[in-house]
């Protein structure tokens, strides 16, 4: 039906552009009935929904460890983090590693005892 723009869908349904955007993104605040109507109207008008269907479905996993527990390539914790990151990537998830330095431990975050307690 030509070059359909996002603004054409809310005009056809008499809803706001924000409602249409939220419906496509799967955000809260849009009932399933309205979400269905928006998607149906978009398909009817020939709107390209590809950019909304290719969203990453994974999780974000954060790992916090003391710098004292990390030795690249040798540490139990580094090895464990690599395995977690590899498994996460297979499920379209991402990982973040935060190594806490000495200054944080001096502020009362005594993590060294956990490194020793749980190290293999």
Automatic annotation (TrEMBL):
Domain HTH lacI-type: 4-47
InterPro entries referenced in this protein's UniProt entry, alphabetically: HTH_LacI, Lambda_DNA-bd_dom_sf
PROSITE patterns, per database record: HTH_LACI_2 (PS50932)
Domain of life per record: Bacteria
Name used for this protein in its record: LacI family transcriptional regulator
